[in-house]
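Example 3.2
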Amino acid sequence: MAYRFSSPEIAKQVSDSSLQSGHTAPPKVTSTLWSLVAIGVIAFVAGLVGGYQQRAWQIYFVNFLFWSGIAQGGVVMSAVYRITNAGWGDQFRRIGEAMVSFLPVSFVLYLVLVFGGQSLFPWIHDPPKGKEVWLSAPFLFGRDGAIFLFLMWLSYKYVSHSARSGNGQHASEKSLIKLTPLLLLSFALLYSLIGFDLVMALDPEWYSTLFGWLYFLHAFYAALVMITILAVLSSKWFHQEGGYTTNQWHDMGRFVFGFCLLSGGFFWSQFLVIWYGNLPEETSYLIKRFYSQPWEPLMWAYVIFAYLFPLAVFLSKKIKQVPNALLSIAFVIFIALFLERFIAVVPFVWHEPTIPFGLIELCVTVGFAGAFTLSWLRFVKTVSVVLPKT
């Protein structure tokens, strides 16, 4: 469904551009990814029918939020690149745009998620007093579904014009002048609402004025990390290691580092707002994760590897110029950011004294990873994202 929606349309729009020649991943890579998807589907269904409904739905939910945010953030990265008139790494921008192909898949996954509402939102049929309308199931899932549908439409429209721009397509250039700021504003506002609706509402008695901003910023940070990972891997898959210069790797490393600092600053700002505003009602989220077992070690691991570790290693100029080093660093940060989504969601709905991460969770997670990468590869069969140096 996702592939038929994306590839022919984009192919037609870039038929006269230098991006037309796409790339095909090695068969072993593709077959491995399909195997991961099959493993994920089997594990999820086995969890549902085998008496592990809670675990199956909560890891499905975590992965849906994580990979959907990355896909949307990848397109937004291109808009950020364009609105700042950057010219240091068009290949990275194209990799982000290619993530648009996962958004239709994400929307279908959202429709499936609606059936797990009872496991994730135990109050869904009896909303808290005073929030009966806002948190009613039809209104909650309906408005968030509309948000995902609108962002998917806007992202495809942006990518189609972006692919045609720079090739004498003045109409596309004019359209991008309007679409770029609209995409950026829509992402910030609507993904903040998604954070409030689908994560903060897991505990309808808790609220934080900064949570929505931190939610969309984490999605963008994770997208930058994934772009870095895909840039290194795809240059190897497509045998085009010469498609990037040393300066481009360095600039991408600085880009990731900058948003590491920004998202870390927002994370710390939660404490400042609680302190100077004297808001004890906002402390329950942090207390449960920083001072309660079994979540405390996971929370500190997230803080260390998402913020402190990059702060230390990215101070080196040389390490940002080496693709394999960037790949290793990005992978560590990537795991830490997945951990952030996990501990943002699961402590709200899991009340056992153990960490619910075993074979079911691992298999569902790799299934999502396989689906995301296959969607991305499907796009780059049509639109090249890695070009040799000229």
